[in-house]
Structure formats: C-alpha cells, structure tokens
Amino acid sequence: MAGKKFAAVREKLTLTQQEFAQRVEMSIANVRRIEGERTTSIRPEYFRNLANLLEISHERLTEILRPSNGDALPPGVSPNADTLPIPEWDIDLRASAWADVPVARLDTDNPEQQAAIAAGRFRLRIIGTCMEPEYLDGQTVEFQIVRADAEPLEPGRDYAVCRSDGTATFKRLVRVDEEVLVLAALNRREYPDRITVPRQEVCRVAKVLYRLTPPPPVKVPKG
C-alpha cells in the first residue's frame, strides 16, 4: 500500500486523521504510520471498514491504494508483516532465463506454499543482474499472484511468469496476446534476447508489488 495514496483517500473524504481513524475504527497512530510510510500493512477489518466507508468493493480499494510498479520500501519496512505470512524463495537467473522455483508448482499439502496461496503473495530474492538497474542482484521483490480472469496483463509491467514444468522467470512484459507472452530482461546489454512463452505453458503469473530495500554491502577492511 502506498502511504501517499492512503492520505489522498482521507483528504478526499475531507476528514482529519483523528476523524478518519474513528470512522475506520483504527488508531490514529496507525493512520500516521501508514501515511508516513513507516508501514504498508493494514489489518483486514480496517481495510473492510474503509471500503464500506467509501462504498466501493474490496478489489476497487486495492487498486486505488496499490503502489506504482515496483515502488521501493524504506529500510526495515516489511509489507503485511502483521497479517499473513509471505513465503520467500531464491530465483537464480544467472545461467538461464528460467529457474526452478517452488511457486511454479504450488502444493496445497505444503504449509509454506499454502501461505502463498492464502496470501496471494510471495517473495523472490533475485540472483543475477538480468533485471538491473531497477532490481539489484540479491534484492528481494514481493509479488501478487494475478487472476487471469479478473485482471489483464499489462505490457510495461514486471512479472514473475511460472511454467507448468516447475520453472519460473522474472522479466518485463513486452507484448501479450491470446497465444503468447513476450518477455524481456531490463539489462539488455547482457541479456538482449526476448523470450516468447506460449500461454498454454504458463501456469501462474504474478506482478511486482514492492522492491524491498536490500541491506548495504559488507565492507571488507583493507590490509
């Protein structure tokens, strides 16, 4: 959730932070934390109250508050840390455009993967430079699973694309039609080739929600 967009919703209602907190039945401290972008999480009951206050659907409110593509979070901020657990895996794209990643074969009997299904989210730690400079080697990115029947894929957005063979990739969507997805790395100097994926091979697609700020590199003393 983007704090500035959250504040814009409150201001559109012409409510002070105190009035808004009372109407949504949350603490004013939480309102200030969200608007100040010190957290990005909001409990489901508060989210429901806000949707009811605006007289819009849960899905519409999600779209209104959704951050722009790949918004980075401040250091130490973890989206939804106080709600649903979000599983995290590595995706190593150094040697190949595709990597073996558990999210490509979600198993309802696996507790960790059940969490991804329940939350509709997962995180991937990017290994490699194919998506630099926007996504750094070692950086963790959070994704939202896209329902193909409810949300069209958007060229120009960045997606994790999973195939039915258990592999996945992370690329920018260049083109989409009824037959194929065309993907490209952002680091075109090292990875110039586009990838064409038949839609019949795709089992899951997830869009970027956040780039979690990576820890600073460890400095090795000289000498």
Explain briefly what this protein structure is:
The protein is α+β, with helices and mostly antiparallel strands and 223 residues long. 24% of the residues lie in helices and 26% in strands.
Which helices and strands, and how do they pair?
Elements: H1 3-12, H2 17-24, H3 28-35, H4 44-54, H5 58-65, E1 71-73, E2 88-92, E3 99-100, H6 111-119, E4 121-127, E5 140-145, E6 158-163, E7 167-176, E8 180-184, E9 195-198, E10 202-212
What does this protein look like?
This protein starts with a helix and ends in an 11-residue tail after the last strand. Strands 1, 2, 3, 4, 5, 6, 7, 8, 9 and 10 form a 10-stranded mixed β-sheet that branches. The chain has 2 domains: 3-66, Orthogonal Bundle (434 Repressor (Amino-terminal Domain)); 88-212, Umud Fragment, subunit A. It has 6 helices and 10 strands. It has helices spanning 3-12, 17-24, 28-35, 44-54, 58-65, 111-119, and strands at residues 71-73, 88-92, 99-100, 121-127, 140-145, 158-163, 167-176, 180-184, 195-198, 202-212.
CATH hierarchy: architecture of the largest domain = Ribbon
Q: Into which percentage range does the β-strand content fall?
A: 25-35%
Largest sheet: 10 strands, mixed
What general outline do the C-alpha atoms trace?
elongated
Structural class: alpha+beta
Q: Give the uncertain stretches in residue-range form.
A: 69-84
Helical stretch count? 6
Radius of gyration: 19 Å
User: CATH fold name of the largest domain, please?
Assistant: Umud Fragment, subunit A
Q: How far is the first residue's CA from the last residue's CA?
A: 46 Å
Give the tally of structural domains.
Answer: 2
Give me the count of strands: 10
Look at the structure and give the CATH class of the largest domain. Answer: Mainly Beta
Task: Please trace the helix and strand order, writing H or E for each element.
Answer: HHHHHEEEHEEEEEEE
Question: What's the mean pLDDT score?
Answer: 79
Query: CATH superfamily of the largest domain, called what?
Result: Umud Fragment, subunit A
Helix content: 10-25%
